[in-house]
């Protein structure tokens, strides 16, 4: 009897969710879109206002906010600090790797953009996995993505404090013993930004992005000037390099000297793909802002279509400028395996000895921006999961505050991120945390593949709208993107430092993925039995 009541209660819960979905997705075809443009007679494109009847969020993000959030999503600490290692792997051919991976990520964004354009009231693109692949895969993708965001947030808060300490160390100030306080202050500040209003979040991200763009632009301009005047620089002691860097000159010949697609072997060339892919992670963040964006059907296509241009300017432009100043053969690891920041090298060769402090200030900004975005995204995903959960306890988290932000979900995610210093302090737990946090990057590939499969289902469903933001040649581009993400995952098995992450990711897919599918299968069976018994 108790099992019957539980099943019946869940049935009612699902019926209520179904009615809400119908209310959002089955409004009259004669509605107009949010831009005020009349739709053609018989179009399936519903107006944003009609779809927003169940959207409790505030549309406070403007076109300017979303454009710079998208830019900021493509620029992380990896470009400022990790590009030296990327260059050392393959030399100038790393430019082609960045372009190729960027194009594939653009295909993914077009798929997400097409589905989001149809229903811009969704808080996350994960919902389309649920809609088109079923509740089992939706449950797996939703909780996996949220857990991965929290784990990345834990590593990001550690990175912020590390860069902060390094920044002050350039002035001879040691803040090592205050690392925990630095992490707490940064997290409290960014949580406050997320709790005030979505417009405040957008404004903060706008200025974070402006700082990063300014440094990249300054570095590119500096490199161009050095090339034009034929700048010669002496041997110098570069901050972050444990040996004296040789003298040289600025010129295009540095880029082509001894050019080879795989100067360090094809294994190193293959390994560069996964490194570049991880630099592009969270590019899909734009797909989480749509439900809080003004005029989403006008803003979304612009933000998505300009992604490839941003990749060419900021990533490729920066890498080309760096290798024109510093010969790619000069990028050698230190004794501890670390690499100096190429940005610091370029500025110091130009005679700007204070460049180290400048770059690490911007790196702090980039890491803070990443953490800010992670809090935003994790809060929205947990809110969505809690709102749709049959659990009364989780339902309490799935509520919006008076300021129309998912405050409880943001706070829960932040509290878990704050466990980072405690986890790092426990030796036995720390090793497992490193494994899981690295595996979390690998599972993003599963999410991307499921998203693309959901897109294929969408294109073949009755939901498809031919007058939307349609992905061209979708069968080819979708298939190419899926194959590429599978290829990236396979490369994780090639190196010792990523193999365990790949294995852990597979264990998670089989274990939690299998549990999610079986859970949905038994729930559906129990619900069916309960309904038949009631009839």
From TrEMBL:
Span list, region Disordered: 15-46
Compartment(s) of residence: Cell membrane
Basic and acidic residues: bias regions: 15-26
Membrane topology of this protein: Multi-pass membrane protein
Membrane-spanning ranges: 66-83, 89-108, 145-168, 180-201, 213-233, 266-286, 307-331, 351-375, 405-426, 432-455, 476-495, 501-518
One annotated Gene Ontology cellular component of this protein: plasma membrane
Keyword vocabulary terms for this entry: Amino-acid transport, Cell membrane, Membrane, Transmembrane, Transmembrane helix, Transport
BP-aspect Gene Ontology terms: amino acid transport; transmembrane transport
Pfam family, one: AA_permease
InterPro entries recorded: AA-permease/SLC12A_dom, Amino_acid_permease_CS
Amino acid composition bias (Polar residues), ranges on this chain: 30-46
Entry-linked PROSITE patterns: AMINO_ACID_PERMEASE_1 (PS00218)
Matching Gene3D superfamilies: Amino acid/polyamine transporter I
Signal peptide location: none
Superkingdom in the source lineage: Bacteria
Family, similarity comment: Belongs to the amino acid-polyamine-organocation (APC) superfamily. Amino acid transporter (AAT) (TC 2.A.3.1) family.
Protein name, entry field: Amino acid permease
Source organism per UniProt: Bifidobacterium breve DSM 20213 = JCM 1192
């Amino acid at each position: 009897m108790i099992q019957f009541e539980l099943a019946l209660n869940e049935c009612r819960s699902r019926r209520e969710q179904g009615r809400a979905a119908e209310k959002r997705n089955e409004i009259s075809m004669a509605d107009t879109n949010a831009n005020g443009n009349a739709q053609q007679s018989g179009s399936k494109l519903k107006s944003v206002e009609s779809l927003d009847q169940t959207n409790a969020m505030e549309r406070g993000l403007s076109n300017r906010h979303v454009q710079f959030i998208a830019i900021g999503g493509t620029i992380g600490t990896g470009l400022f600090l990790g590009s030296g290692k990327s260059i050392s792997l393959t030399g100038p051919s790393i430019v082609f790797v960045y372009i190729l991976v960027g194009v594939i990520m653009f295909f993914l964004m077009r798929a997400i953009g097409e589905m989001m354009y149809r229903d811009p009231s969704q808080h996350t693109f994960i919902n389309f996995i649920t809609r088109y692949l079923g509740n089992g895969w939706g449950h797996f993708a939703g909780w996996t993505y949220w857990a991965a965001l929290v784990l990345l947030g834990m590593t990001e808060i550690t990175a912020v404090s590390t860069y902060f300490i390094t920044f002050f160390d350039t002035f001879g100030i040691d803040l090592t013993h205050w690392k925990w306080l630095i992490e707490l202050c940064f997290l409290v500040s960014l949580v406050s930004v997320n709790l005030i209003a979505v417009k405040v979040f957008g404004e903060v991200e706008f200025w974070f992005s402006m700082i990063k763009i300014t440094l990249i632009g300054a570095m590119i301009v500096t490199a161009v000037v050095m090339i034009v005047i034929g700048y010669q620089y002496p041997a110098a002691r570069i901050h972050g390099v444990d040996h004296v860097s040789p003298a040289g000159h600025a010129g295009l010949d540095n880029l082509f000297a001894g050019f080879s697609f795989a100067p360090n072997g094809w294994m190193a060339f293959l390994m560069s793909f996964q490194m570049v892919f991880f630099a592009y992670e969270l590019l899909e963040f734009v797909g989480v802002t749509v439900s809080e964006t003004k005029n989403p059907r006008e803003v979304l296509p612009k933000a998505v279509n300009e992604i490839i241009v941003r990749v060419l300017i900021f990533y490729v432009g920066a890498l080309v400028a760096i290798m024109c100043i510093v010969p790619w053969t000069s990028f050698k690891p230190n004794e501890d395996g670390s690499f100096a920041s190429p940005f610091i090298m370029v500025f110091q060769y130009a005679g700007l000895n204070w460049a180290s402090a400048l770059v690490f200030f911007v790196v702090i900004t980039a890491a803070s921006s990443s953490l800010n975005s992670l809090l935003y995204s994790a809060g929205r995903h947990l809110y969505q999961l809690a709102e749709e959960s049959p659990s009364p306890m989780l339902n309490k988290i799935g509520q919006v505050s008076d300021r129309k932000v998912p405050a409880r979900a943001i706070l829960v995610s932040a509290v878990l991120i704050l466990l980072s210093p405690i986890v790092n302090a426990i030796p036995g737990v720390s090793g497992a945390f490193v494994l899981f946090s690295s595996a979390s990057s690998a599972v993003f590939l599963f999410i991307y593949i499921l998203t693309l499969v959901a897109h294929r289902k969408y294109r073949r469903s009755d939901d498809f709208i031919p007058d939307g933001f349609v992905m061209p040649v979708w069968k080819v581009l979708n298939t190419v993107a899926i194959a590429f993400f599978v290829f990236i995952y396979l490369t994780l098995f090639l190196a010792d430092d990523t193999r365990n992450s790949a294995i852990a990711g597979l264990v998670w897919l089989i274990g939690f993925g299998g549990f999610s599918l079986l859970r949905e299968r038994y729930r559906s069976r129990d619900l069916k039995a309960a309904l038949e018994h009631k009839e």
